[in-house]
Amino acid sequence: MRDVAIVGVGCTEFGEMWDSSFRSLFIEAGVQALSDADIKGKHIDEIYIGNMSAGRFIAQEHVAALISDYSGMSELHVPATRVEAACASGGLALRQGYMAVASGISDTVVVGGVEKMTDVVSNQSIEILAAASDREWEAFYGATFPGLYAMIANRHIHEYGTKREQIAQVAVKNHYNATMNPKAQFQRAISIEKVLNATKVADPLTLFDSSPITDGAAALVLVPAEKAHQYTDTPVYIKGSGQASDTISLHDRRDICTIEATVEAAKTAYKMAGIQPSDVDVAEVHDCFTIAEILATEDLGFCEKGEGGKLIEEGKTELDGDIPINPSGGLKACGHPVGATGIKQAVEITTQLLGEAGDRQVDCETGLCHNVGGSGGTATVHILSREA
Ligand SMILES: CC(C)(COP(=O)(O)OP(=O)(O)OC[C@H]1O[C@@H](n2cnc3c(N)ncnc32)[C@H](O)[C@@H]1OP(=O)(O)O)[C@@H](O)C(=O)NCCC(=O)NCCS
Q1: Which parts of the sequence belong to the Thiolase N-terminal domain (predicted)?
Q2: In this structure, what are the phi and psi dihedrals at residue 242, rounded to the nearest 5 degrees?
Q3: Which of 33, 98, 125, 385 is the most buried (most CB within 10 A)?
Q4: Is position 336 annotated as part of the catalytic site?
């Protein structure tokens, strides 16, 4: 197996992108990544695209071929593959691209993610997203993702005495981080009171505990590590890649306060990278709802189970804390175009490792990206480092 490096990154602005189409969003991110790596379309061996539901959001399927075509590569006949695992589609695309390069099948691979979610009205987007839960046993009975994560929040409060204010603190931190991210959907700070007093979405979660509906795309260029210096003086290496699955429905879980797919994917990634959770300097984790970040910090091993509330309350996950979490603003404030999120996380961690994150820069050598599909049916974890 070959080592793999990231040599180019690209990301659009996240938000309601009325002036951009699905295809133009991806092309914008892809062109940025290619020009960052200083390569042209003719050098690409393969493309993997994370996308959850273009068929329902914009009535377009067959999106990998579409993207290859509109990137001007139809005559090159480059293999282009769509990867779908709900909100973990981007993380999975990264892992597929990583495996294609690591195996020796392809040398230069573009991995990307894209979603255009705001062309449908709000209740339609919630319904489309709910298709990533168990249709027969959850969505059919009216469960939505805000509802499912609200159940997890209530259970965490009951089981571990987690305070409502601690959960709200996740939103406050991530909105603050996003004030320093020019690509973030929401670039304004909020207070705990604002989170607690906002419109209830699913008790106890409010509007500000929720990630938004977002348009956006992100892309990376991957090459074999031994060739990375042909493209850039500063490659970032993928040191570990883990993926795991679990029951798709919440009621079948042994413990709804633990995302076992995260635990298992992290175990694989840490082992491959030869590191412990304490070696991670910065992480982008899947905070689709505030409670999900608390779960992630526990399941990734940054604190004991049940201690996630305390970790955020003590400021340890802030930019200058022991383990800064979601410097981009996370899904909560940077935005969550579901198919693109896993790739955007890797763009942010690469940017951080290169010391190019501006005012939100943290001190780091090793970073982690954590992407979850649905309520935890799928999870991916990637470890990135400046060190080969
Ligand atoms: C929370 C949610 C229901 C809000 O949708 P909505 O009620 O239709 O909200 P609107 O689009 O009408 O926006 C109302 C206002 O709140 C803001 N807003 C919307 N969602 C927001 C969010 N998540 N955080 C902060 N502000 C938000 C909008 O910018 C708008 O502000 P404005 O009036 O100043 O322009 C929706 O964002 C949602 O479903 N989020 C969850 C997405 C999800 O489940 N993803 C998958 C996770 S597994």
Answers
A1: 4-225
A2: -130, 145
A3: 33
A4: yes
